[in-house]
Amino acid sequence: STLPAVAEELLREIKKAFQETSHVPDDMLLGLKFIFGPAAVPALDLVDQHSVTRVRSPSGRTLYQVLGSSGKLYTCYSSCHFCTCPAFGFSVLQKSESLLCKHILAVYLSQAMGACQELAVSEEQLTNILLAEEEDEG
């Protein structure tokens, strides 16, 4: 994983707390805000709105789609810590101002809280999703 150890540990703690109590304690919310900055609150909003969908193909390939607050669908890859949104390209890759964008944080939080929608697709459908992203960027 490409997240700092402290961020990984916080996400593990959130998962554990959520499994035990079905909510995230205030101190962990403060930790999220401290580590992830301005992405924390919007990411939690995306989780609350069930905006994260895990897309899985029969071969086991997985990606995530997050319906952004603007209504646009972004593709996230938690395995390589990447999102197709402009904020990721600018704040994370170019400026190194943030660890991640709100969409990837929403993916990690949805995983921790068991809040992902599930979508099974064929290999061809998954390929089409990936090719559509390339065309958008191309």
TrEMBL record:
PROSITE patterns in the record: ZF_SWIM
A GO cellular-component term linked to this record: Shu complex
GO biological process terms held by the UniProt record: double-strand break repair via homologous recombination
Record's keyword annotation contains Ribosomal protein: no
Keyword field: Metal-binding, Zinc, Zinc-finger
Highest taxon, organism lineage: Eukaryota
Keyword hit for Zinc: yes
Domain SWIM-type: 74-112
An example Gene Ontology molecular-function term: zinc ion binding
Membrane-spanning segments: none
InterPro entries (alphabetical): Znf_SWIM (IPR007527)
Listed PANTHER family: ZINC FINGER SWIM DOMAIN-CONTAINING PROTEIN 7
The protein's name in its UniProt record: ZSWM7 protein
The encoding gene: Zswim7
